[in-house]
Automatic annotation (TrEMBL), chain A:
The keyword Transcription does not apply. The keyword rRNA-binding does not apply. Signal peptide: none annotated. It holds the Pfam family CSN8_PSD8_EIF3K. One of its GO terms (biological process) is regulation of translational initiation. It comes from Apatococcus lobatus. Keywords: Cytoplasm, Initiation factor, Protein biosynthesis. This is PCI domain-containing protein. One of its GO terms (cellular component) is eukaryotic translation initiation factor 3 complex. Gene3D superfamilies: ARM repeat, domain 1, Winged helix-like DNA-binding domain superfamily/Winged helix DNA-binding domain. InterPro entries: ARM-type_fold (IPR016024), CSN8_PSD8_EIF3K (IPR033464), eIF3k (IPR009374), PCI_dom (IPR000717), Transl_init_fac_sub12_N_euk (IPR016020), WH-like_DNA-bd_sf (IPR036388), WH_DNA-bd_sf (IPR036390). One of its GO terms (molecular function) is ribosome binding.
UniProtKB/TrEMBL annotation, chain B:
It comes from Apatococcus lobatus. Residues 517-536 have a biased composition (Low complexity). This is Eukaryotic translation initiation factor 3 subunit L. The lineage of its organism: Eukaryota, Viridiplantae, Chlorophyta, core chlorophytes, Trebouxiophyceae. Its main location: cytoplasm. InterPro entries: eIF3l (IPR019382). Residues 510-536 are annotated as: Disordered. Pfam families: Paf67. It comes from the Eukaryota.
Length: 213, 536
């Protein structure tokens, strides 16, 4: 159950500090952040946009957890249209739609907002890479470069690291290098499972008694 | 308009009050329930169809001025008032104060009476309904004169119908009733289910109010868009652990549980969980509809039924793979009601979503009161809450709006190269690649998997079109390979169910006729056999 204190507006400053500390220590947790947003809902004039922006940045890093959407549902519309929230919202929409070129452009544009999270770009690269690994069996280097927004030596060192640690293999042939990604349940077809009619014991029992008499 | 009461209180009403009081004192649950459900409704119909019942001070004399009885009577009085008229600000404040007084008495633990569970549920339900009504009332600033706004400001400042107070009461009822302990072990849970909360020497009031307050918390949190909080507040109840749930005994309670839980899951994009909830409750309503045909709640139940079908249509449109969580019977009914809408939503990602959403969503409220300092005269703030929720929901829809077209095209092939797919879809390769990534990402949903409370879950597959992309080493051309995921047809279960149904019918037909009642001739009974057969 939720605490009865969750809606106690006198706790606003305490909760703000707790959330800020959590983010600084790298221990962001969605329940605390949602408590803060609930309190802001009761006192919308006291909303600290910068802190809310930090919450949204943390939530972005945690996709596919639904934290970003949960937070947006508690932020009033007119606040969503102000900076830095509107920039973060636009960036998240590109991310969800898989439009990585626009996503990275958006990230460049709001680099000051994202400055609070120093490893933002690295962590986002890891997230996007995971999605790529689920979708592709083999991926070309150019596609990899454009999705991850790296090239040249950085891309090479990334590929090298993955080859050593995660079982990637690289083959050259044709115009660019092709990387074979490790197999997982997503990037190969599942075998079709024939599901026969499994019925419950009592249904079978009534059928059998009927058949008998 | 209140007629001149005093001696004008009808005799029947006086007798009702006296007997009602006596039954409550004697803890005669069956009589209390019958008077509450049947007699009250009959008297209302006869005397108070368009006006309110006599105020409590006029009947206090009949019951020795019993304070608690007057509070209970007033609860029913205000509930009726809200149903027949538009209450004034003064009446709303009085009703709030009545609830405060009543809950305070109960929370102090001094009551030893027993009340029917349906009344306790109605109390919680009405409490939240009046809160919603007040929030709507205070949002309609454009209808109010300056003095009315001033009065309203005073009322809000005193905390009347403030959301934190409402939640505090519900939470206090849930905490003090010890309901969490009762639901924590399976043996105590079972005992609760068997006794229905009525235990011989104790009062069921606090315990059952605690139980229903959990549902109340779910509802209030959902009304302000806090879906995660709603599911967490519902714990220890869980819509997926149906074995010892008490809610199916009261239709209103069960519908509240599954409607709001399902809606909370839908807004969190947990489509599989949402579909399971809607499936459970739609099956329940279909089974118990007949029993409530004559009750005053029948219309409400039917309306909720329609709203639930609309929500299910939205869920399946956004996640066709969730169909496997829904019974065939319900899918058939859904197709009859919303078949062409769903077709349009699934095939073309058309803009019908907001229409269905607007019809089926709860009446949202803003947590904070609107600014009453004069800057917002002439404004209606009730739409704000609704628009925020709609906007977030449509955001989900927009992300997926390109997917139906993509899925249509993919289903026609077992493998297709990306350039060719781009040509077919009349878009460039980068756009198609983005859409394929989105499609892959939407293939799994957070779903409750048996652990933890209703808000927990793990990612489970929800695949509609299974595919992966391979890149040819020589030419760098990307090839999309698709597999068929056929919907599972459960023939065995379907046939077994229908065989049992037919067996039941045949058994009824072959049963010997019931014993003849005095006065009825045996000849009158004969035609029932052949005509029953003819009907089938």
């Amino acid at each position: 159950m939720l605490d009865a204190q969750e809606y106690d507006t006198s706790r606003l400053n305490v909760t703000e500090k707790e959330v800020a500390d959590q983010i600084k220590a790298g221990k962001f947790e969605i329940n605390k952040a949602l408590s803060l947003l609930r309190l802001y809902n009761l006192l919308p004039d006291q909303m600290d946009l910068k802190l809310v922006g930090s919450i949204l940045i943390q939530a972005l890093l945690r996709i596919p957890e639904p934290d970003f959407n949960l937070a947006m549902l508690l932020i009033p519309e007119r606040m969503q249209e102000e900076q830095p929230l509107s920039a973060l919202l636009a960036v998240s929409q590109h991310l969800e739609a898989g439009q990585y070129r626009e996503f990275w452009q958006g990230v460049e544009a709001c680099s000051e907002i994202l400055a609070s999270e120093p490893d933002f770009q690295e962590k986002m690269r890891r997230q996007i890479l995971e999605r790529l690994c689920n979708t592709y069996k083999r991926v070309g280097q150019n596609v990899l470069a454009s999705c991850l927004h790296t090239d040249g030596s950085k891309l090479d060192s990334l590929i090298q690291q993955k080859v050593e640690q995660h079982g990637w293999t690289v083959s050259t042939g044709g115009s660019e290098r092709i990387i074979t990604l490790p197999r997982n349940s997503h990037n190969q077809l599942r075998p079709a499972i024939a599901q026969g009619g499994a019925f419950e014991m009592d249904q079978l029992a009534s059928l059998l008694t009927t058949a008998r008499g | 308009m209140e007629a001149g009461y005093g001696d004008g209180v009808p005799d029947l009403v006086k007798r009702f009050v006296v007997y009602f009081y006596r039954h409550i004192r004697e803890r005669n649950i069956r009589e209390i329930q019958s008077m509450y459900e049947v007699s009250f409704a009959k008297l209302t119909d006869r005397f108070f169809k368009a006006s309110s019942w006599p105020p409590a001070n006029l009947v206090a004399g009949l019951v020795d001025g019993d304070h608690v009885f007057c509070l209970l009577y007033q609860e029913m009085y205000f509930r009726h008032l809200y149903a027949v008229t538009q209450p004034s600000l003064q009446q709303r404040v009085e009703s709030w104060q009545n609830y405060q007084a009543l809950f305070n008495v109960i929370l102090r633990g001094n009551v030893n009476m027993q009340l029917p569970n349906v009344w306790l549920w109605d109390m919680v339900d009405e409490f939240i309904y009046q809160f919603q009504s007040f929030a709507q009332y205070r949002g309609r600033l454009h209808e109010k004169s300056a003095e009315e706004v001033a009065l309203l400001r005073k009322a809000c400042a005193s905390g009347f119908w403030d959301i934190s107070q409402v939640l505090t009461y519900l939470q206090a009822l849930a905490d003090k009733s010890g309901i969490a302990q009762d639901l924590s072990t399976s043996s105590s849970e079972q005992r609760l289910a068997q006794t229905d909360g009525y235990e011989a020497q104790r009062s069921n009031v606090l315990k059952m109010l605690g139980y229903y307050s959990l549902l109340g918390l779910l509802r209030v949190h959902s009304l302000v868009g806090d879906y995660h909080g709603a599911l967490k507040a519902l714990a220890p109840l869980n819509p997926f652990k149906r074995k010892n749930l008490l809610t199916p005994r009261i239709a209103g309670a069960n519908i509240t549980l599954y409607y709001y839980a399902g809606f909370a899951y839908l807004m969190q994009q947990r489509y599989l969980d949402a579909a399971t909830c809607f499936n459970t409750i739609l099956g329940y309503i279909a089974r118990v509809k007949q029993q409530y045909q004559r009750s005053s709640q029948y219309d409400q139940i039917l309306k909720k039924n329609e709203q639930l079908y609309a929500l299910l249509a939205l869920t399946l449109a956004l996640c066709p793979a969730a169909q496997r969580c829904v019974d065939e019977v319900i899918i058939n009914t859904l197709r009859e009601k919303h078949g062409d809408k769903m077709h349009r939503m699934v095939q073309r990602g058309d803009g019908l979503h907001d229409e269905l959403f607007g019809y089926a969503c709860p009446k949202f409220v803003t947590a904070a009161p609107p600014k009453l300092d004069g800057s917002h005269i002439g404004v209606n703030t009730n739409q704000e809450a609704y628009r925020l929720q709609l906007r977030c929901f449509l955001g989900q829809v927009t992300t997926q709006s390109t997917l139906p077209g993509l899925k249509q095209t993919l289903k026609l092939y077992t493998s297709i190269s990306l350039p060719k797919l781009a040509v077919l879809m009349e878009q460039d390769q980068a756009a198609v690649r983005s859409q394929l990534m989105t499609l892959k990402a939407s293939s799994s949903c957070k779903t409750w998997s048996g652990q933890g409370d209703a808000a927990e879950g793990t990612m489970q597959p929800a695949i509609d079109v299974d595919f992966y992309i391979d890149t040819d080493p020589e030419t760098s051309v990307e090839m999309v390979t698709i597999s068929d995921v056929k919907p599972v047809r459960r023939h065995g279960e379907f046939l077994a169910r229908h065989i049992s149904k037919f067996e039941d019918i045949i058994r009824d037909l072959n049963a010997p006729p019931p014993a003849a009642t005095p006065g009825a001739t045996p000849a009158a009974r004969a035609p029932s056999g052949p005509s029953a057969v003819a009907a089938y």
